[in-house]
Design a protein that fits this description.
Glycerol-3-phosphate (1)-acyltransferase; transferase; 13% strand; transmembrane helix; 3 domains; alpha/beta; 354 residues; transmembrane; membrane; 13 helices
């Protein structure tokens, strides 16, 4: 019970934080989310730990997550992640000897599905900002078929989920979350030999992900197509429209990026958040993977800015009255909302706005 209250509190905090962080969160296909029963969400993975945050805060099911084991190295961080229903999944790069730990994790996943709860898995196996759906690993199918084998009366629904960002690592974020058609697995599992059932389920999920997110085939044409889309200032979060252009190889003419007339407001926000901004600039120099920029920036902004604004509001209240302190806090939040919701998000920018 305590864990559920804690999870709900964190879920609500993150959802509020994403509202302030995102220009627009476009959610499609919510009717495809089963209201009850065992569900496995199979999600593409372009942008670090921000991907599960967007998915879990756009559906009402309480999700359990499988994330890469490297995130669990620090004991304190591990306790927090476990309390939020995150579980580690081990890969070859984590050490061959570590792979045996996956069996225990799979058993936990089977138990979760038996209780008709939900799992969220990223079957591409790693994050990558490339606008292409990469080959899927079979780990999620092993979990599904393992649970079906163990519990003969269990039905598990797989729901592919496509995530597309206007651009990763840039602020404010603009993102599309697209829930695909549910795939029931019991009849598929029982109708064919395991190798064939595995291939069919894998292909069904992969084909949906190519429609639910922007997919540029990863071949010699990839860079040319991406450049043409960027030059045309395409809104990538209009997924269907963008994929139709890619399929037809017909792109609009080149357009100049929209000018950001709100940049002075951004500088004012930075000045008002000077200590969190300095801390972020120092930390950002040590981020080696571009897919983690959004993750760290969002996390730091969510906690440091709230703390910093609260301290400043308290100081103002003490010396100038509570009304002025409340006015400062409200104005600070309003300035962020105005910038985030109204600043342009071009298809490509020279530098990330921090």
């Amino acid at each position: 019970m305590i864990q559920k209250i804690w999870f709900t509190f964190i879920w609500s905090t993150i959802k509020c934080g994403l509202f302030f962080y995102s220009k627009k969160i476009n959610v499609l296909g919510k009717k495809n989310i089963p209201k009850k029963g065992a569900v496995l969400f199979a999600v593409n993975h372009p942008n670090g730990l921000l991907d599960p945050l967007y998915v879990t805060t756009t559906n009402k099911r309480q999700n359990h997550f499988l994330v890469r084991a490297a995130s669990f190295k620090h004991p304190f961080i591990k306790k927090i992640l476990v309390s939020l229903y995150l579980m580690p999944i081990y890969r070859v790069r984590d050490g061959v000897q570590q792979l045996s730990n996956n069996q225990e994790i799979f058993e936990k996943c089977h138990a979760i599905l038996k209780k008709k709860e939900t799992l969220m898995i990223f079957p591409e196996g790693s994050h990558n900002k490339k606008r292409t759906v990469r080959p899927l690993s079979k780990g999620f199918i092993r979990i599904v078929f393992g649970a079906l084998e163990k519990y003969k009366d269990l039905e598990i629904t797989v729901v592919p989920v496509g995530i597309t960002y206007q651009h990763t690592s840039h602020y404010p974020a603009k993102v599309s979350i697209n829930y695909g058609k549910p795939i029931t697995t019991r009849s598929l599992y029982e109708s064919h030999p395991i190798p064939k059932s595995t291939r069919i389920l894998k292909e069904k999920v992969q084909e949906q992900l190519k429609v639910l997110s922007v997919h540029i085939p990863d071949n010699l044409e990839y860079e040319r197509i991406l450049q043409q889309l960027n030059n045309a200032q395409i809104d990538f979060t209009e997924v269907t429209k963008t994929n139709e252009m890619i399929e037809a190889r017909k792109f609009p003419s080149k357009k100049p990026p929209k000018k950001n007339y709100l940049k002075p407001l951004l500088y004012l926000i930075k000045l008002n958040s000077i200590l969190p901004y300095i801390i972020w600039k120092k930390i950002s120099k040590n981020i080696n993977e571009v897919e983690f920029i959004d993750t760290f920036r969002f996390s730091l902004n969510l906690f440091l800015c709230v703390l910093f604004y609260s301290i400043q509001a308290t100081i103002i209240s003490r010396y100038f009255g509570s009304a002025l302190g409340l006015f400062y806090l409200t104005t600070s939040a309003l300035l962020i909302i105005i910038y985030v919701k109204l600043a342009p998000t071009n298809a490509k920018e020279d530098t990330a706005l921090v």
